[in-house]
Amino acid sequence: MFEKILVANRGEIACRVIKTCRRLNIATVAVYSDADRHAPHVEMADEAVRIGPPPAAQSYLDIDAIIEACRKTGAEAVHPGYGFLSERAAFPQALAAAGIVFIGPNPGAIEAMGDKIESKRRAEAAGVSTVPGGAGAIETAEEAAKIASEIGFPVMIKASAGGGGKGMRIAHSAAEVQEGFDRARSEAASSFGDERVFVEKFIVDPRHIEIQVLGDKHGNVIHLLERECSIQRRNQKVIEEAPSPLLDEATREAMGAQAVALAKAVNYDSAGTVEFVADQDANFYFLEMNTRLQVEHPVTELITGLDLVEEMIRVAAGETLRHRQSDIVANGWAIESRLYAEDPDRNFLPSIGRLRRLAMPEAHSGHTTTRVDTGVVEGSEISRFYDPMIAKVITHGPNRNAAIDAMSDALDRVSIEGIRHNGVFLSALMAHPRWRSGHLSTGFIAEEFPEQATRPLDDDGRIVMAAVAFAEEARDAVRRAGFGQHPTPMPGALSAIFEDDTRVDGTVTKNGKGWVIAIGDGSIEVASDGGGGRGVWSGHVGGRAVSLSFHRASHATSLTWRGMRAKLKVRRPRIADLTAYMPEVALADGGKKVLCPMPGLVVSLNVKAGDKVDDGQALAVIEAMKMENVIRADRAGTVKAVHVAEGASLAVDTVMLEFE
Fold first, then answer.
1. Residue 117 three-state SS
2. What are the respective helix, strand and coil percentages of the chain, to the nearest 5?
3. pLDDT band for position 118 (50/70/90)?
4. How high does pLDDT run on average in the chain?
5. β-strand 101-102 against 77-79: which pairing, if any?
6. Helix or strand run (H / E) with residue 85
7. Residue 633 pLDDT more than 60?
8. H or E segment at 338?
9. What's domain 593-659's architecture?
10. At residue 631, what are phi and psi to the nearest 5 degrees?
11. Cα 406–Cα 412–Cα 413 angle in degrees, nearest 5
């Protein structure tokens, strides 16, 4: 076994690897860029080495800098995490030349499977079912359109060296092939240094299912069952679960057998993932093989009881697999939600800034398990240079419904200030009846959340939120009275006025340590477990356990619960009566200016002053966190002025151009 391991990554995966190394009594070395000088993974490791400035190409992708860090610290082996150098064959080759062990598959397997075109050829040779499509790289959009017309629309244009949803575009017509080809190729070049793309048939209403495999250096390979990753947005996974609600035992065995056959065909000797696309009848086709640890690996760990990082380390040290296929049995159900720094109200565009508040659900085990993998703490900076992930929230229960309920409870205990995040959207998704039924597809989010990323506020949510706000107002009134700041300790009658002008009236009375709130013809008992000092209110409302994000400013209270979001004002009834005569002033229209919707880099400008544009026409392309986003006109008009240039770094709401 190794005595010291360097982790060539950052964020939550670096912290995740360090935790396993600690448990195995292995010393760790962190590497960091200037942007991560005070990051949690740097604090957690036994040693840390600076490797360069913030851009990944000058730090986390610098092979020489990482090898030098190994030499300085005496690290015997390197764990690459995922992303960055994890799937570049040149990295383990350079490590081997320096006498350092790579905790991952051999370079030959990475080369064979890291290239999507070559991996498809290998899969066909190994007897694995594959998706119809072109046999090689496509050089022009015209060639892509020709192949698409032969195999039929829709098609997927994919980067050969891609991953993580980057360099992928769906085209439903010949007209969409040109832009999809250009964007996929450009993203592939900037993200992977390889602009090759290929075209294959896009399976309608598809499901994304992957098989976790594990091999050693002695020819043994097993699979660790499947994960379903169908809940995606822009080809990036949002929710993952294990096992899949689609598969029966026969299909599971067939997929597992094909995954193992492919892994053996390329002499695979670490943890990896064989990904399949399946239709609603469970017919499945090979997509690609990821020759690394996956972001979603925790759901596999929770249903199998294995620590995949430990297994990778043991295999890299030359040990034989400790488990046989017959040992692998699914225990319960696990779900993972990816909590991202992105704005659901602005089409999920990236959000950067400092985490002024970060409250996460506490990890625990019992009838259900909650686990949080994160690489940030309160006060951390979310940078435009890296992936916008804040945390992964993972729950496990005896069955799927129990795991979903546990996830709903966990997401209700998330409170973040300083940046926008997708927590309320994830909570809304957990409550969606189609998700709970297990009828999934990769188009789920686009189909079920086309405009609004939250649940509509229903009567139950309105009453729960009003009751909590009333109870907190009453508690504060008693506190103020105790300090001589308020003449009357009990507010008595109160009114909650919501943003849509809906009003809920109630009367509050004391009841032991809690409150009884009369609303309409009924009454609700409310008892807090400790208040909302950290942005989360936890307690009981009407006899049921409730947690919700709770933030009160001088003028209003903001709450989120079960995917519903509301802002309300708690007032005395007479003051509430008068608010009808005090309408809030609406913000003026933004006029004819186009503002940058996210912090990012101007990749290209498609218009100049004097150009006439149509509604929906592409104006510019902004790169944020390695994803290219097309900025389109929301109306027809003539460009009056362009205020930015290609290559410029823009902040949110920077004026990009104006219309006449």
1. helix
2. 30, 35, 35
3. confident
4. 91
5. parallel
6. none
7. yes
8. strand 333-340
9. Beta Barrel (2.40)
10. -95, 125
11. 95
Per CATH, domain 132-201 is 2.60.40.10: no
State the DSSP H helix or E strand holding residue 394, giving kind and residue range, or none if neither: strand 389-397
**Per-residue pLDDT for 583 more than 80?**
no
Band of the pLDDT at 163, cuts 50, 70, 90? low
User: CB within 8 A of 234, min separation 6: which ones?
Assistant: 165, 348, 627
pLDDT of the residue at 49: 98
Query: Cβ atoms within 10 A of the Cβ of 100, count?
Result: 18
The CATH architecture that domain 4-103 belongs to is: 3-Layer(aba) Sandwich (3.40)
Q: What is the pLDDT of residues 15-40, one digit of tens each?
A: 999 999 999 999 999 999 999 999 99
Question: What does each C-alpha distance from 653 to 346, 590, 593, 594 come to in angstroms?
Answer: 12, 11, 10, 8
| Residues 188/194, Cβ–Cβ less than 8 Å | yes
Using pLDDT thresholds of 50, 70 and 90, give the confidence band for residue 232.
very high
By the 8 A CB rule, do 194 and 157 touch? no
Token output for 142: 């015209």
> Residue 217's closest CA among 263, 258, 261?
263
Long-range pairs of 609-614 with CB within 8 A, sequence gap ≥ 24:
609/639, 609/640, 609/641, 609/642, 610/638, 610/639, 611/638, 611/639, 612/636, 612/637, 612/638, 612/639, 613/637, 613/638, 613/639
Supply the CATH classification number for the domain 207-448: 3.30.470.20
User: Which of the 8 DSSP states describes residue 589?
Assistant: P
Q: Report d(CA 607, CA 640) in Å as an integer.
A: 10
CATH of domain 459-579: 3.30.700.30
Q: What is the spatial distance between Cα 220 and Cα 213, in angstroms, rounded to a whole number?
A: 11
Residue with tokens 């944020």: 624
Which residue from 640, 542, 656, 547 is spatially nearest to 598, judged by alpha carbons?
Answer: 656
Tokens of 27: 């010393």
What whole-number distance in Å separates Cα of residue 197 and Cα of residue 182? 10
Active site residues: 288
pLDDT over 90 at 7, yes or no:
yes
